[in-house]
Amino acid sequence: MAKILAVANQKGGVGKTATTHALAAGLAARGERVLAVDLDPQGNLSYSLGLSAGPGAMALLQKSAAASEVIQSSALGLDAIGSSPDLSSADIAIAETGKEYRLKEALAPLARKYSWILIDTPPALGVLSVNALTAASKVLIVAQPDIYSLHGIERLADTVATVRRYCNPKLRIAGIALTRFNRRLILAQQASQAIDAQARELGTRLLSARIRECSAVKEAQAMKRDIFSYAPRSNAAKDYQALLDELFPPKRG
Ligand SMILES: Nc1ncnc2c1ncn2[C@@H]1O[C@H](COP(=O)(O)OP(=O)(O)OP(=O)(O)O)[C@@H](O)[C@H]1O
Ligand SMILES: [Mg+2]
């Protein structure tokens, strides 16, 4: 049965999309069958996965297409469902009772086809993020090591708690991953300590893998490649490999 991981933070530009792409590519490289879902109207993941325009996640949410009809093949072992600009109207367009369950229902028939489904979410706490959190078994919180992140993580944790109460009691926080990390900045160290303390308060953990600031991440996205194939020796590839191994410990034997 597919496990579903949502990558979330309502703060913009913290590395959600880069992280979703790296984790999806890393799992596919291990031979897992992976589906990536772009639930962000900006469509950044769709762009970096090289998807073509056409019906995607919005069609699922509106029940105008089945998941099998909108899946595209992105790379070996990596399929994807793309975004489209009309996702930005989801909050208004999808308003009926049960609106939180649309994605979960649409992905259910794929449970045997994939081992992992990874969902990239937009920088907002609206119907799209709630659909992702309702479909997911786990949520990975991505954050930058600055003090302003603390408040945002708390709000996200509140949303997770609400989704748990009303829609998805089994939802777990997989951890908090710090991206765009700069070891030399004393502020980054201080912020990490504060986020670590906050993670414990929220009943989760600050993951030990840190994704360093690294220009190869931007380049890989622009070149529509994943970080492991584009720059296998870069700091970001090493760091994302560490995050992958921490989140999904490789099977022995
Ligand atoms: N480790 C990194 N080093 C350098 N640049 C990075 C790193 N991670 C992400 N970036 C760059 O920062 C920008 C934001 O990253 P990304 O798009 O992954 O964030 P996001 O949280 O998905 O943003 P949004 O909230 O807008 O969807 C992108 O231009 C990306 O290339
Ligand atoms: Mg993004």
Describe the structure.
The chain has a single domain (3-247), classed as P-loop containing nucleotide triphosphate hydrolases (Rossmann fold, 3-Layer(aba) Sandwich), CATH 3.40.50. It has twelve helices and eight strands. The protein has helices at 16-29, 44-48, 57-61, 67-70, 90-93, 102-107, 127-135, 149-166, 186-201, 215-222, 227-230, 235-247; strands at residues 3-8, 34-38, 71-75, 78-81, 116-120, 138-143, 172-181, 206-212. Helix 8 (149-166) links the parallel strand 6 (138-143) and strand 7. The chain starts with a strand and ends in a 6-residue tail after the last helix. The structure holds adenosine-5'-triphosphate (ATP) and magnesium ion. Adenosine-5'-triphosphate (ATP) binds next to helix 1, strand 7 and helix 10. Pfam families: AAA_31. Residues 2-173 form the AAA domain.
Give a quick rundown of the structure:
Residues 2-173 form the AAA domain. With 253 residues, this protein is an alpha/beta fold. The chain has helices at 16-29, 44-48, 57-61, 67-70, 90-93, 102-107, 127-135, 149-166, 186-201, 215-222, 227-230, 235-247; strands at 3-8, 34-38, 71-75, 78-81, 116-120, 138-143, 172-181, 206-212.
Order of helices and strands: EHEHHHEEHHEHEHEHEHHH
Q: Numbering strands along the chain, what is their spatial order in the largest sheet? A: 3-4-2-5-1-6-7-8
Please write the CATH class name: Alpha Beta
- How many β strands by DSSP? 8
- Radius of gyration based on Cα positions: 17 Å
The major β-sheet equals: 8 strands, mixed
What gross morphology would you assign? globular
The CATH topology is Rossmann fold
Strand % is 15-25%
What share of residues is helical?
A: 40-55%
Unreliable runs = none
Q: Compute the average pLDDT.
A: 95
Ligand catalogue: adenosine-5'-triphosphate, magnesium ion
How many DSSP helices? 12
Protein structure class: alpha/beta
How many separate structural domains?
1
* CATH superfamily annotation: P-loop containing nucleotide triphosphate hydrolases
CATH architecture label name: 3-Layer(aba) Sandwich
